[in-house]
Amino acid sequence: MKISKSDVEKVAKLARLEITETEKEAFTQQLSGILTYVEKLNALKTAGVEPTATVPGQSNVFREDKARPSLPVEKAVANAPESADGFFVVPKIIEER
Amino acid sequence: MTGIHKLTLADLQKKFTAGEVTARDIVQAYTLRINQVEPKVKAYITQTKETAMAQAEALDGKLKGWRRTMPLMGMPVAIKDNICTEHVLTTCASRILGNFVPPYDATVIARLRGQGYLLLGKTNLDEFAMGSSTENSAFGPSRNPWNVGHVPGGSSGGSAAAVAADECVAALGSDPGGSIRQPAALCGVVGLKPTYGRVSRFGLVAFASSLDQIGPITKDVTDAAIMLNVIAGHDPLDSTSANLPVPDYTRALKKKDLKKLKVGVPREFFAEGLDPEVGQAVQAAIDELKNLGGEITEISLPTTDYAVAIYYLIATAEASSNLARYDGVKYGLRTKQAKDLLDMYVKTRQEGFGPEVKRRIMLGTYALSAGYYDAYYGKAQAARTMTKQDFDAAFKGVDLIVTPVTPTPAFKLGEKSEDPLQMYLSDIFTISVNLAGVPAISIPCGFSKAGLPIGLQIIGRPFEEETILRAAHAYEQATSWRAKKPNIR
Q1: Number of CB pairs < 8 Å for A and B?
Q2: Shared domain check, B261 and B248
Q3: Fewest 10 Å CB contacts: which of A75, B100, B145, B228?
Q4: Active site residue B179
Q5: Rounded to an integer, what is the distance from CA A47 to the centroid of its chain?
Q6: What is the pLDDT of residues B302-314, one digit of tens each?
Q7: CATH code of the domain in which B61 resides
Q8: What's the rounded Cα separation, in Å, for the pair A73 and B239?
């Protein structure tokens, strides 16, 4: 399936990517090519076939709901671009009136 | 002692256990080798030779008076840079994780450490394991030790190149769609993708969660069995890891034949697009398996031709979700240009991800978006069921399936990097194995006229790595491909 530049812009927005004009052109053409290729799947009769999300033999795994040792706060924030007092710092979300 | 770096893991263990070499001798030999060839091969992103040397010296000091008992004691191993190593940079070959130092070890690393291994460094990969050539690395491509004008394959290209160039005794890689087996084939070494669930993925940076699996890349089949012994087994920290007993895989190597084993050859893997030199080498290998007592039958895996399409919808959909975590908040890069929170997300991701990662996030987001979910992602999941059924049906009649690993020997740097679809199609022979979750090994089975290695893939039933290793080992012992080393110095 051919997709348009505006489709690419919409998908980039969903994917939280701020792509450049050059990338928009390239992705429009490359994604159209890949989507056209994957449409060969339409030749497979999959009506009534159960989808596979992961290979069989697996089921939910449960454990006791008990507190266990976890990563200490200082280690958990050690890689943060910005942190203070053991918290992650991000730009302000709510505007003041 | 000279030539330490050329020894297999099993042989190096023997010499170390006998006290013929010290851990210091070993690390020194690998340091010299890395200094000599690494400028040409570029297998590593981060080297930890100095730490390895300090650990080796401490180990030698401790060992005075008692004998070596742990299987990896003093053995210098290289780790793909998408597997978390505490205190050691883990970049995934991405700018977005360029400064990431994990606060914990992956379970496989904890297991290797528990057996006394020495970390020699972190190896190059396609960014987030997305690629088939190691060209999609933010730190530049690795080279094929057999011909540095050619790619080493990918995404575990750094690990495969490091093993082939004797820059480590063994390595770990990860394999969502062929990323262990394909570079192993293109670099002339052994690469094993275990069954989905056989090895814990706790601490492996997620790309495609229903497909990823960690496995060893080694100089021979015995070494692959030794490494699998260490890393296999249940882990409560990975809910997809299988709670099944782990056999001693080295015992599987005792039978040096394929007697009473039925070997299937799927006709779909020998169709157009297969390089004649690869076809001939694989055919000769099949004849050898027959000589070794294997009963060869032609089989069919009818959905083979659809595997690339299924894979690139499922893997990218999972990637688009997994990579949502890179938002400039908890770790990694944060843009300096942000006006507000949303702006911080989009600019951080734009600056941090390379072109192939963006392309896959875009494709996956599209396949999962409203109005297209059923047509693309849902369709691919149903088709995946059919792929799994193909393998289930085939394994009712045969014990093993043998195929080529790649359609061609290693391609040249830059040859496919402008055409993503052509690059994806180079994975055609390895990805259905991941879709079905079954184990498979790549072992050397010849060389092209240009002197580039060719690989043979042996696929087994789920959790029957022993059968694969037995057949691979019997073939390896009956042939002499592993004696040939790349002429790089």
Answers
A1: 167
A2: yes
A3: A75
A4: yes
A5: 28
A6: 999 999 999 999 9
A7: 3.90.1300.10
A8: 24
ipTM associated with this complex = 0.95
CA B365, B212, B91 angle in degrees (round to 5)?
Answer: 80
B380 vs A contacts (CB less than 8 Å):
38, 41
Domain that holds residue B324: 304-385
pLDDT above 80: residue A96: no
Closest residue of chain B to A49, computed from CA coordinates: B382
> Averaged over A22-38, what is the pLDDT?
95
Which regions of chain B are under pLDDT 70?
1, 65-68
Separation in Å, CA B174 to CA A68, B80, B206, B469: 29, 7, 10, 18
Would you mind telling me the total number of residues written for chain A in this entry?
97
C-beta atoms of B334 and A82 within 8 A: yes
Domain boundaries, chain A: 5-43
Domain C-terminal end among B358, B385, B412: B385
Same domain, B236 and B247: yes
CATH topology assigned to domain A5-43: Histone, subunit A (1.10.20)
Does B186 share its domain with B137? yes
Split into its structural domains, chain B has a count of 2
Domain co-membership, B359 together with B275? no
Per the annotation, the verdict on B209 as an active-site residue is: no
User: Catalytic one among B94, B133, B179, B241?
Assistant: B179
pLDDT at position B65 is 56
Q: Which of B385, B417, B436 delimits the end of a domain?
A: B385
Please name the residues in contact with B224: beta carbons below 8 A apart, sequence gap of 6 or more: B190, B191, B192, B216, B218, B441, B469, B472
| A17–B310 CB contact, under 8 Å | no
The shortest CB-CB distance from A90 to any of B103, B313, B341 is to B341
Question: Does B55 reside within a domain?
Answer: yes
Residue given tokens 């109005």 in the structure block: B371
Q: Is the pLDDT of residue A19 over 60?
A: yes
Contact yes or no for A34 and B362 at CB 8 A? no
pLDDT at A1: 77
- Catalytic option among B132, B155, B174, B432: B155
Query: For position B489, what pLDDT does the model report?
Result: 84
Using CA coordinates, name the residue in chain B closest to A72: B103
Q: State pLDDT tens for residues A67-85.
A: 999 999 999 999 999 999 9
| Nearest alpha carbon to residue B87 among B122, B53, B111 | B122
Residues B195 and B80 reside in one and the same domain: yes
pLDDT at B293 (0 to 100):
98
B78 with B177, same domain: the answer is: yes
Find chain B residues with C-beta within 8 A of A92's C-beta: 340-341
Are the beta carbons of B324 and A81 separated by less than 8 Å? no
Provide the phi-psi class of B451: left if phi over 0, else alpha when psi is between -120 and 50, else beta: left
Q: A24: distance to nearest CA of chain B, Å?
A: 10
Which residue in A11, A41, A78 is closest to B383 by CB distance? A41
B53 and B199, same domain (yes or no): yes
> Residue B70: its pLDDT value, please?
86
Residue at B20 is within a domain: yes
CB contact under 8 A, B379 and A33: no
| Domain co-membership, B27 together with B74 | yes
Nearest to A50 among B236, B385, B462 (CB): B385
Confidence category of residue A59, pLDDT binned at 50, 70, 90? confident
Residue B489 counted as domain residue: no
Question: Against a cut of 0.90, is the pTM above it?
Answer: yes
Tell me whether residues A15 and B365 touch, CB distance under 8 A.
yes
How does strand B190-193 pair with strand B214-218?
Answer: antiparallel
Residues B308 and B468 sit within 8 Å (Cβ to Cβ):
no
Nearest to B157 by CA among B200, B178, B126: B126
